[in-house]
TrEMBL record:
Gene: apaG
Name of the protein: Protein ApaG
Taxonomic lineage of the native organism: Bacteria, Pseudomonadati, Pseudomonadota, Gammaproteobacteria, Alteromonadales
Domain ApaG: 15-139
InterPro entries hit by this protein: ApaG-like (IPR050718), ApaG_domain (IPR007474), ApaG_sf (IPR036767), Uncharacterised_ApaG (IPR023065)
Top-level taxon in the UniProt lineage: Bacteria
HAMAP family named in the record: ApaG
Length: 139
């Protein structure tokens, strides 16, 4: 087993708390859209962003670093998420689901959001490393 794959096995998704904005992630493998012979592994991820500050925050941009088990990387950057730049009021959450296609049955994603507070303060909210993996592949 490669060192990279070993490190994936040891990783546990954990919430990230930066600037009192919490990011949590749930992932799912989507077999009906995947094709192992074509090395196409499709995953969905559901992100919950919870604003624990005393002012609204607006999600401006996202940045993702995606790494597969071959250590091939790709990046995704752009405005908002799923075509939106949500404003998240204090003590509220924004939840969205998106997807990722890998060439290997295991990989990781990590990144950050750039947000703007009501008082025009820019904050960067880290998205912790989380694993994308076929069910039971790492057991």
């Amino acid at each position: 087993m490669t060192d990279f794959l070993s490190s994936l096995i040891e990783q546990n998704p954990v919430p990230s708390e930066n600037s009192n904005v919490k990011v949590s992630i749930e992932t799912n493998y989507i077999p009906e859209h995947s094709n192992e012979l074509e090395k196409r592994y499709v995953f969905s991820y559901t992100i919950t962003i919870t604003n624990n500050t005393e002012e609204s925050v607006k999600l401006l941009t996202r940045y993702w670093l995606i790494t597969d088990a071959n250590e091939d990387t790709s990046t995704v950057a752009g405005e908002g998420v799923i075509g939106k730049q949500p404003v998240i009021p204090p003590s509220k959450s924004f939840i969205y689901t998106s997807g990722c296609v890998l060439k290997t049955p295991v990989g990781t994603m990590q990144g950050h959001y750039q947000m703007l507070t009501e008082h025009n303060k820019n904050i960067q909210v880290e998205i912790p490393v989380f694993r994308l993996a076929l069910p039971n592949i790492l057991n």
